[in-house]
Write a structure and sequence with these properties.
The protein is α+β, with helices and mostly antiparallel strands. The protein has 5 helices and 10 strands, in the order αβαβββαβαβββαββ. Helix content is 25%, strand content 29%. A hairpin with a 2-residue loop joins β7 and β8. The radius of gyration is 14 Å and the shape is globular. The relative contact order is 0.24.
Amino acid sequence: MAGRGTTATIALERAGIPFTLHSYAHDPRHESYGREEISGLGVAPERVFKTLVAEVDGALVVGVVPVEGQLDLKALAAASGAKKAAMAQVTAAERATGYVAGGISPVGQRKRLPVVIDASALNCPTMFCSAGRRGLEIEIAPADLVRAAGATVARIGARIGAR
C-alpha cells in the first residue's frame, strides 16, 4: 500500500482493525460521487455508504448513510441528543475533517467529530466507505467501523423520495 495510505487507512492500521482497500478511476466530471463508486467498484448499492457532515445544534456531526439514500437530518439530531440539524458548509466539513468533499472518511479525521452510522449498515457483511480520497474506498465490517469511529448506530438514512 506504499504511497496509497491516507489518514483513514493509517488510523485503521494503528488500531489493528482489518479492512480491504479498493480503488477506482475517479472522473471529476461525474455528477455523483456515490454512483461513481457503485459502478467503479461493481458492488451492490446497499453496501456503499457516503459520509456527510451536518451542523447539529451548532456542532459538527458526521452521518454515514447509504449512498443511494439521503441523510434524515431530524433523525441525526435526535440520535445526537439535539433539536435541529442542517447540512454543514462544504468548507467547514473539509476544514474539520481534513478531507475533500467526495472523499470524507468517518475515520482519521483532523478533528474527531461524533459519528452516527445508519443502522442499515449492520445488515451488510461488509460495507464500503471513503478511505479519505476520491476514488479510494475502505471495505470494512460494520461493527469494526463503529468501533474505529467511536460511532453511534441509529436509523438516520431515508430513501430518496420517501417522506
